[in-house]
Specification:
Elements (H helix, E strand, L loop, with lengths): L1 H7 L2 H11 L13 E6 L3 E6 L2 E2 L8 E6 L2 E7 L8 E7 L3 E7 L7 H12 L11 E12 L2 E10 L2 E11 L5 E8 L9 E2 L4 E3 L2 E8 L14
Antiparallel strand pairs: 1-5, 2-4, 2-14, 3-13, 4-7, 5-6, 6-8, 8-9, 9-10, 10-11, 11-14, 12-13
Length: 223
């Protein structure tokens, strides 16, 4: 199960993104042991991937969008996964278009800016009123090498369950994915050309975590 889970996330693609956008040019992998940890955008990546639908789908792009400001907390109990827990908070205003594939023309910087404005608008995420997306686990099964997290995902004050599949790749990088159906959270998938071009209702969330830190370190002075 672990091999299928990690392979489905495309470890090479995520690792490449980590190296191309991480603050440090070197990705440092971690060892997972029991404890309470913090993680987030400084040393990890959280991606949203969309796909096209409709008769005019050739005119649009499949998008890779990154959350550039997010944080999480994990309680790890390797011998008893049921006692583990995870919470994640994503700033909706931090979503940034990283890549657009397909389409008649390449995605331009102006296109990326327009997509960001659309994402933040009232019709989609309405970031002015809903500045955060949160996930809180309700159950965890499996092992650090291959796990499944069921939890409550809250978007625009609507909460519904979602299942996250993940695992460690053996080098210490924890990665995984989940499928989110936008309409379940009251989000109408973007459409254009009278509906001839639209985003598919299902989007894919992918993550890669390469560093965990005890919460106590964040409050320590340096020098």
């Amino acid at each position: 199960m672990m091999a299928k889970t990690v392979a489905s996330v495309s470890r090479d693609a995520l690792s490449g993104l980590l190296r191309s956008h991480a603050p440090s040019p070197k990705v440092r992998f971690m060892t997972i042991s029991d404890g309470t940890y913090c993680f987030g955008s400084s040393a990890s990546r959280l991606l949203i991937k969309t796909s096209r639908a409709g008769l005019g789908r050739k005119a649009g792009h499949d998008l890779t969008i990154e959350a550039t400001r997010w944080s999480g907390n994990a309680v790890v109990a390797a011998s008893d996964p049921g006692k583990s827990s995870v919470t994640v908070t994503v700033e909706t205003g931090s979503l940034t278009v990283r890549e657009g594939t397909g389409g008649i023309k390449p995605l331009t910087d102006a296109d990326r800016a327009e997509i960001k404005r659309t994402l933040e608008g009232e019709a989609l995420l309405h970031t002015a009123q809903h500045p955060a997306i949160t996930f809180r686990s309700t159950s965890i099964t499996g092992t650090p090498e291959s796990f499944e997290i069921t939890g409550d995902l809250t978007i625009k004050d609507r909460t519904h369950p979602v299942i996250v599949h993940g695992g460690s790749d053996g080098d210490g990088m924890v990665c995984g994915w989940a499928t989110v159906t936008q309409s379940t959270w009251g989000i109408k998938p973007y459409s254009a050309f009278l509906g001839a071009l639209k985003l598919a209702d299902d989007i894919r969330i992918e993550f890669a975590v390469t560093k965990l830190e005890p919460p106590s370190r964040s409050g320590q002075a340096t020098g």
